[in-house]
Amino acid sequence: MTIKGTLRFSTDSKDVIDIGDFKWFTKSVGYYSPKSRMMQFRADISCQPKEESRTALWSCSAAGTLAMANDAKNKQFVYHLWTASFSNGCTRFKAFYNNSKYENNFNAMERLSGKSQTSTDVHVKIVDSFYADLKDPKNALIEDPSDSALFKVNGEDLWLPKKVLAANSHFFAVLFRGNFKEAVDGFYEIKDLKLEEFIHFIGIVHLHNKHVDGKSVEGLLKLGDMYQCKIVLQRCEEYLQRASENEFPPMKKLFLIDTYKLHSILTDVLDQISVEELKAVPFDSLSFDVLRDLIVEKLRCIY
């Protein structure tokens, strides 16, 4: 059964509506567009679980429309379609719409019903969702209680299934096979890590979180490398591949490639960096042989 709901445009993000197991709000935001050289507007749509917990792993995929509406006349003019995925570390979606379409629909509805009766709505359909509070030994990730393991991270208890972690991480596969301290204490302690980053890591491993951005990519690369987890490293590479130069500078990408041996995006990133910039790279500090060799070859090219 599809869960649906409607949000009414507001300039105040305190107007929260419950839809399914999540609380939603929307806000109209004005911004300057360099392309059009004028003010434009977008809809910011936010989603968070109703049950707030530091140890929650969650996701929500949704789709919907932005529409002019007149309740009295039961009329609706749709001017934008949207789809979004929300999860740990990704609670807001920016819906950039065509402002001309907005104005045309607004004027049409105003002629039909009068400005005072016109509202702007965000229609929401929840397509798929997941919620698990990992401090619960019977959380939704645990299918077999005999497969569960207790982790302690920043003073919080997290119950996680061993099989999925072992299948995706050589580090955890060895950990669970070996006679480690957990056999005595009854738990595995993860030290010197941020709880939010570790839960984000777990979400990617379990395919409940695909989101990686400029704020999270370096922390996730560190975890993916430390725990020898290919799927997390791959998600980070995919983000760096598509991230624009304004969002994530190519030189910064280059040093991440060197640190974590991200060979799949190496040539694409080198193409974004000028010869003059490469000449300024502290060559002796690079540890990735393939990267060093390709930089040498690029510097030898005649442009």
Automatic annotation (TrEMBL):
<protein>
    <recommendedName>
        <fullName>BTB domain-containing protein</fullName>
    </recommendedName>
</protein>
<dbReference type="InterPro" id="IPR011333">
    <property type="entry name" value="SKP1/BTB/POZ_sf"/>
</dbReference>
<feature type="domain" description="BTB">
    <location>
        <begin position="147"/>
        <end position="214"/>
    </location>
</feature>
<dbReference type="Pfam" id="PF00651">
    <property type="entry name" value="BTB"/>
</dbReference>
<dbReference type="InterPro" id="IPR000210">
    <property type="entry name" value="BTB/POZ_dom"/>
</dbReference>
